Amino acid sequence: MPLTPTVSIVFGTLAASLAFATHAADMEPKIRPPGAPTSAKTDVLKAGATVLQTNNPLEPMNVYLNGFHPMKDDPKHQMVAHHFCNQVNEDFAQCALFDGNTRDANLNGIEYIISEKLFNTLSADEKQYWHPHNYEILSGELVAPGLPEIAEKALMKGKMNSYGKTWHIWDTGVPGMRGDKLPLGTPRLAWSFNHTGEENPGLVEGRDRALGIDSKKRRAGRAAFTPLAKPQTGVSDLAGKFGRPTQPFPGVSDARTGVSSSSSPTESSR
Length: 270
Fold this sequence. Notes:
There is one protein chain. By secondary structure, the protein is of the alpha+beta class. The chain has one domain (5-25, 56-229). It contains 8 helices and 9 strands. Strands 1, 2, 3, 4, 5, 6 and 9 form a 7-stranded antiparallel β-sheet that branches. A two-stranded antiparallel sheet has the order 7-8. Helix 1 packs across helix 6. The relative contact order is 0.17.
């Protein structure tokens, strides 16, 4: 769905507020890859590249989002995901994912975000890789740390009914578990939460404390978005796989079954 004019203004003026936005509370990475300190020669090369090389494709990735990703093949394996995104056009954004929001954070994944319009052009086979976003937004769990409330609400409203395709390529650790010191193994497809209670205990609360935010307050502030929510593909893909009771969430519906999440059975009743 195209972004509203308000959201377009937000993205157009985001550079001016970027210093404020990205200086929200820091979340340091827990993993440091092994290796020798950079040499003087390498430091000189890095400094020269900064001055002489232009058209850096990372420079436009100035939209900072923070949310959560369970792995689709192992939903109990969940992590905080720091997204640094470039809104390429009204319907497509691309994000680099990190395990923190400081300069020493590790690149551990990528995510592409598309509108409902683009999602509807995909084949049925391709759609299995794209997770829905409505619960992330309506629950208040997806946030843009440091942005003024009015700007964040406009940004999130523009992402209603969108989808993301996310691959994590480095397990740099999740709460209570240390990750790999190097990127090892096969990339893993990440998914989204779609019912209350799918989140591991303490995951959201820990993130909120670290960044100094209140997900519950954001949830209340986004209640007005509920009428905008359309049924989405993938809402029930992980149903029953979290090993704990879950509850449906108002406005989050499954497009394949046609059943509203607010009236679907919970894991505890299956």
